[in-house]
From TrEMBL:
A GO cellular-component term linked to this record: plasma membrane
Compartments, as annotated in UniProt: Membrane
Keyword terms of this UniProt record: Membrane, Transmembrane, Transmembrane helix
Single GO BP term: defense response to other organism
Transmembrane segments: 39-62
Lineage of source species: Eukaryota, Viridiplantae, Streptophyta, Embryophyta, Tracheophyta
Record membrane topology: Single-pass membrane protein
Name recorded for this polypeptide: Late embryogenesis abundant protein LEA-2 subgroup domain-containing protein
């Protein structure tokens, strides 16, 4: 017989080849789709956390009791002359108080552009120096507009100008275009681009300014 077997039942025939293990391609370590789903879940949780933090910071800043406030406190108008060739000569200075009442939030003013308007026409422009405003801080901006600018006043606008020239009190608007970031601890928000509108300021020529309606509105 080809196969030999001992008295004790042991087998002395050819060696039995080892069992071969086959690896299916594309399975890897068994991660695949599971790893991708886990990664996506982590990414979604991270994004939702950042959005929640962002909303919290904005709420802390702009809730009514802690809202950043802008006020025009002083104005000096020494020249405001409109000629027949549609040129407006002006010399105008504003002081604007910015109050940050928040205890833990600072504000980076990365861009501050000041614009002056008369009858919805812009006649003055200034780019101011960027700055950082700390916690519970009041910053005063000094804005000076001076020069000559072409402005077209016709019909009711011209009538309004002549009436205000007679009274010596002009209705002028100030607008601040901002690029700001808010800082809470070491966290900084994305850039906001609000506009601050100080409308219908009654400014006397060569006279004291009464800051009666000097509160400004913030629009995002």
């Amino acid at each position: 017989m080809a196969d030999k077997q001992g008295l004790n039942g042991a087998y002395y025939g050819p060696k039995i080849p080892p069992t071969q293990q086959y690896h299916r391609h594309g399975r890897g370590s068994g991660c695949g789709c599971c790893c991708l789903v886990t990664l996506l879940l982590k990414l979604i949780i991270t994004v939702l956390t950042l959005i929640g933090l962002f909303i919290l910071i904005v709420w802390l800043i702009f809730r009514p009791i802690n809202k950043v406030k802008f006020h025009v406190t002083d104005v000096a108008l020494t020249e405001f002359n409109y000629t027949n060739n549609n040129m407006l000569s002006y010399n105008l200075t504003f002081n604007v108080n910015i109050r940050n009442p928040n205890k833990k939030i600072g504000i980076y003013y990365n861009r501050v552009e000041a614009k002056a308007f008369y009858e919805d026409q812009r006649f003055g422009y200034r780019s101011l120096t960027p700055f950082y405003q700390g916690h519970k801080n009041t910053t005063v901006l000094n804005v000076v507009f001076t020069g000559t600018q072409p402005v077209t006043l016709q019909g009711e606008d011209l009538t309004q100008f002549n009436s205000e020239k007679t009274s010596g009190i002009y209705s002028i608007a100030l607008e601040l275009s901002l690029r700001v970031k808010f800082k809470l601890g070491k966290v900084k928000t994305a850039v906001f681009k609000p506009k601050v509108e100080c409308d219908d300021l009654k400014i006397p020529l060569n006279g004291p300014y009464v800051a009666g309606s000097s509160k400004c509105k913030i629009k995002f």
